[in-house]
Fold this sequence. Notes:
There is one protein chain. By secondary structure, the protein is α+β, with helices and mostly antiparallel strands. It has one domain (2-61). 33% of the residues lie in helices and 23% in strands.
Amino acid sequence: MTIVTQNQKLSDEDKQKIKDIFAQSNCPNESLENTFPSFNCIRDNILYFCDVNAPCKITEDIAI
């Protein structure tokens, strides 16, 4: 899974929250929206924590 953010990388704690959401939630999209105010959407295994129409600067991969 790839994470795209606008200005800074997510903390290790936030990455663990994402992994936990995918492991435990029946609706990860809704859980991500409720957990992270900056979460925008999931498209093609990419988690966007920025406006998908704006230039997103930071990309990192995590194993889910």
